[in-house]
Write a sequence for this structure.
């Protein structure tokens, strides 16, 4: 069968799950099935053997059952880098790139002239995507990523190695700040679990089945982890340091209240590409460079 008709047939099968993206996803899945990692297009003149065709249909069934492409191929592109995933890492979301953008901007514009060797901390690092993306931009910075999940830590370490950032990063298991002793940081990044358990029923299969539960949900209507993190944040921030915290789509007011209760200054809140307040920048009230 010609490649094009294989793709067309698969796209029909994928239509209900993927809508407008069905053809593109079929092309990507065919690429994965033939070990190409890139989408397959008719002009590529690719020959497919029976084994590859069987593998392709197996992947199509997985996708129809909700498995995201990133989980099928085992990596997600974030900040133009490939991050390998495992069952214990969140599949990084594009909106989280905003934290990287803002962190790098502040490091370059406000912090670097004062301190060349910036120290970064990534709380709940998952695949390591936030910390490693920042380190890839800030060549003298060093950083620590912590996570409650040892499997996530293993994956983050592998990603650091693949991105040649192993020398400037350290990853270890910790329940939020517990393993950090008396360290202080210039930049703290955190995308905590923030979905309330009541919202579980609204989530798509892609998220509910394939993202780890402890990366998604937090008690107290999604605020329990912000509470713990905010009450410790000032202690781990250098006096002119900043924390960049991701917030959920309906949480701005409640998370700002929590920050004030912990005596933190909300310096700025940035919106993501959908216009949703997403990245909250916090600092100590005595910060003199912001
Ligand atoms: C929303 S995910 C963010 C992952 C990654 N930073 C990203 O942006 O893709 C939250 C992460 O926090 C971790 N986590 C949950 N509870 C934690 C705790 N008590 N201490 C440390 N990490 C925790 C989860 O394992 C998960 O990796």
């Amino acid at each position: 069968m010609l490649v094009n008709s294989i793709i067309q047939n698969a796209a029909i099968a994928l239509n209900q799950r993927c809508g407008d993206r069905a053809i593109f996803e079929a092309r990507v899945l065919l690429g994965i099935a033939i070990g190409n990692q890139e989408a397959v297009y008719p002009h590529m003149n690719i020959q497919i053997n029976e084994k590859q065709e069987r593998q392709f249909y197996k992947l199509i069934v997985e996708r129809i059952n909700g498995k995201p492409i990133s989980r099928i191929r085992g990596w997600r592109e974030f900040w133009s880098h490939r991050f390998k995933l495992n069952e214990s890492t969140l599949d990084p979301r594009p909106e989280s790139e905003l934290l990287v953008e803002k962190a790098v901007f502040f490091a370059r514009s406000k912090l670097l002239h004062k301190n060349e060797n910036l120290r970064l901390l990534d709380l709940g690092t998952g695949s390591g995507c936030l910390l490693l993306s920042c380190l890839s931009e800030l060549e003298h910075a060093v950083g620590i990523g912590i996570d409650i999940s040892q499997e996530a830590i293993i994956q983050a370490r592998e990603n650091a190695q693949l991105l040649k950032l192993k020398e400037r990063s350290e990853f270890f298991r910790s329940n939020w700040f517990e393993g950090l002793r008396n360290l202080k940081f210039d930049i703290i990044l955190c995308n905590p679990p923030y979905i309330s358990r009541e919202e579980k029923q609204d989530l798509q299969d892609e998220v509910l089945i394939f993202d780890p539960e402890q990366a998604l949900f937090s008690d107290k209507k999604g605020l329990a982890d912000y509470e713990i993190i905010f009450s410790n944040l000032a202690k781990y921030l250098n006096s002119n340091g900043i924390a960049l915290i991701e917030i959920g789509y309906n949480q701005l007011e409640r998370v700002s209240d929590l920050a004030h209760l912990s005596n933190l200054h909300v310096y700025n809140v940035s919106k993501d590409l959908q216009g949703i307040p997403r990245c909250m920048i916090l600092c100590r009230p005595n910060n003199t460079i912001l």
